[in-house]
Every structure is written in structure tokens, then in C-alpha cells.
Amino acid sequence: MSLRALIIDYNGFFASCEQQERPELRDRPVAVVPVMAESTCVIACSYDAKSRGIKVGTPVSEARQLCPGIAIVESRPEIYIRYHQKLIQAVETCLPVTDVWSIDEVWCTLPPDWQNRRDALATARKIKAAIRRIAGDYLTCSIGIAPNAWLAKIASDLEKPDGLVVIESEELPQRLFPLELRDLPGVGGNMDTRLRAAGLDTVEKLCAARIETLRHIWGGIEGERMWERLRGTEVPLPPKRTSSLGHSHILPPNLRNLAGAEATLHRLLQKASMRLRASGFYAGGLHLALRFSGHTSWSTAATFTETQDTLELIRILNLLWARRPRTRGADAIHGVGVTLFDLGTVAGHTAMLPGIVDNGDRRAGLNAALDHINKKLGKHSVVFGGALGALDYAPVRIAFNRIPDLQIEEGDADGDLRPNDADLAKYRLIPRLA
């Protein structure tokens, strides 16, 4: 079976970008944080910091104890996005990129003439050299090569940093036996539990299982896809579907109050509205989340007639904000998040008749003009007044599987304040806001 897939996984990407940009950070442990505060947590770190026990989610205070002298630096997503673009450029001097999986991981399909070990390895080495030439010596990558992208992803994780690993079809499935179940892409905590309950507590047993068994455990076609991937078959990925979009941020100390939190929510919502329109969606739901000191959180949501109008979404945000807790300590807000859900396409949108429901359709021209001005002249050129007070804060955040467009917006969800689809499902049962 041919070697069809090549995966490039950049090593300690955010920290490596900082070391490439700032010579004083080179050859020392580095941790990247979302905001410079001792109460926050590490979102990325260099490999020498990882060797000291630091990982994503480690509190800054603990990181300092584990690694005295570690450099704590504030995240600069604009820099990381620009390096991502350089890395794509470097890869494409050698091989077309099939898909961008995240800011630090891309998939390439090897041409038929290069689907042998010698040419695949030569291509990988050329890619590494191109990255050093175009992006710099501190931007290294681990490359995995295999019969399918799923196996190539596993190969890219086997040697870090700066690894190069090939998994050939002749080695399957034995090459996978030393791995843990959680090392396999698509096997998370819940699936690990289900596999073990079915008696498949090792990768060797998983590989030996019948296709019908895996279909039963996964509850459908995904089990068959897993069976095929384990044997080197390239299984088409399901089409990507956007079910929600939003932004959440941990507030800096000077904005950890009601006024700062409210202004930041308005700024985030205005960015989300611009993204909504740029993506060609209408939203039928809005979720609001707050995090207080002590890591307690609160959230609420509402559904409504679909819209992409900023003023209508602001009206709904104000209604949800009025529901916030009024108990003691509820004014010490450390994090905020807004998520637009129940997304529908422009093609499926039905315009409302005048005088029946005002969902903002009549302001489409205004929204388009404001979007154009902000793209042309830069961020904050025109904003609605609720965002005043937070214009200097609401920085870019890079989501797991989406690279922000710096011309359109400067932020994305940090994760734990953003609801998943199961969380949002319950809100679809409540009456819509008028």
C-alpha cells in the first residue's frame, strides 16, 4: 500500500514563535499565557518547559515553582498567525497543502510518483529545510508519513520535537500495538471507557476486533471508519459543519468589574456579528457566560427569530445581561463569553415582512457598510457604544481548528466558557424571544 499522506505538526508552536521573534527567550524555558496575571494558566510552552512538568493548564504560580527562571510571556496571536502563513508558504514550495487542520498542523497528499519511502522522506526533509529558511531556525516540526492521514497523524506524534517517522502498510497493525488507546486520534475519555467496557483495553485488541464490533461500540458508521483507518485505508472525512461561533476571554485585572465585563461582552458580540455575516450565516440563538472569582461560572441563553443584525443581537445581549446573578461577589467577573448558535445559511433565510417581525433585515446595508469600513480602515474604526471601555482589550484568540482572519476579527473562544452542542440543545426547547 502506498504512502499517501504527510502530516506536519509544528513543535511548541506559540513558544517557538516567541523564541524566533525574541532572541532573549532562546535556549530557555518559555510559557505563554493569555494575560499577564499570576492567577492565569499556561496555554502553551516550550519543550524544555514541558520536560519540567509544565503543560497546558498549569497555573502560573505552579509553573514558577516547577521551573524557576521560566520566561512567562503574554500571548501575541497576530504574530502566531503570521508565522502560520509563513509555514504554509514554506510547505507549498515543496508540496501542495491538502488541508489546514489547525494553526500548527497541516495535511498534504503525496503525489503518486512520490508515494514510496525514499521520495516521501526526501520531500519531508525538503519541507523541514524550507521552514528553517523561510520562518527561522526555531520553528521546527515533526512530520509523519503513512498510507492515510489518520496514521500519519499518529506517526507525527511518535517523535517530538523535530521528528520524522514513517509507518508503512507492511508494519500494520503491529506497529500500533505499543500505543495507548488514548494515543489514537478520535479516542477520547468517553470512548476509552466504552472500549474497555467491551473488553478492548489495548490497541492490539482493538485492531483484532471485528468491524461489526466497532460499529456497535461507536454506534454507527464511525466504527467502520476506525476499522478501515487501522488498516491503512484513506477514509474520507465527513464535511465540516459550523454549528456555532463565538468569543470568550479572561479579563485583565482592570476590567474585572461590571462595567468592564459588559463593555467586553459588547466588543466580543460585535466581532462575532461581523464574523457571522462574513461566513454567510444567520443566528437563531445567543449564549452568554460569566466566570467569577473562585472559578464559579453562570450562563444563560435565548433563541429568537434568525438574524445577523448587530443591533438586534445587542438588544438580546442586554436582555440576557439583565438576568445575571446579583448575589455577593457577582460583580467580580473574571471571564466573559458570547456564542451565537442555531446557525442557518443565507440561502435558507426567509426575509421577514415589514411590520411583522423586525429581525434587522432592513439594516443589512448599514451592517455591510460598517463591516467594509472596519476591514478597510482597521479595528474599532466604527463601533456601537456598548463596547466603549473595552476597545483596547479583546485580543485575538486562536481556536483549536480555526485560524482567525485578522482583517475580519481579532478573537475566538478560549474554550471553557464556550458551550458545546449538548449544552446548547436544551435552549432550543425554550420559547423564542419576541
Describe the structure.
With 434 residues, the protein is α+β, with helices and mostly antiparallel strands. It has 3 domains: 1-168, Reverse transcriptase/Diguanylate cyclase domain (Alpha-Beta Plaits); 172-239, DNA polymerase, domain 1 (Orthogonal Bundle), CATH 1.10.150; 244-429, DNA polymerase, Y-family, little finger domain (Dna Ligase, domain 1). 34% of the residues lie in helices and 18% in strands. It has helices at residues 13-21, 47-50, 60-66, 77-92, 117-134, 149-158, 189-197, 203-208, 211-218, 221-230, 258-278, 310-321, 364-377, 421-425, and strands at residues 5-10, 30-33, 44-45, 71-74, 99-102, 105-109, 141-146, 164-166, 244-250, 281-292, 297-307, 333-345. The strands form 3 sheets. It has a 5-stranded mixed beta sheet. Strand 5 (99-102) and strand 6 (105-109) form a beta hairpin. Helix 4 (77-92) crosses helix 5 (117-134) and helix 9 crosses helix 10 (221-230). It starts with a strand and ends in a 9-residue tail after the last helix.
- Give the terminus-to-terminus CA distance: 59 Å
Count of helices?
14
* Named CATH topology of the largest domain: Dna Ligase, domain 1
- Spans where pLDDT lies below 50 across 5 or more residues: 409-414
* CATH superfamily placement of the largest domain: DNA polymerase, Y-family, little finger domain
In total, the number of strands is: 12
Assign the CATH class of the largest domain.
Answer: Alpha Beta
Name the overall outline.
globular
As an assembly, this protein is single chain
Largest sheet geometry: 5 strands, mixed
What string gives the helices and strands in order?
A: EHEEHHEHEEHEHEHHHHEHEEHEHH
CATH architecture group name of the largest domain: 2-Layer Sandwich
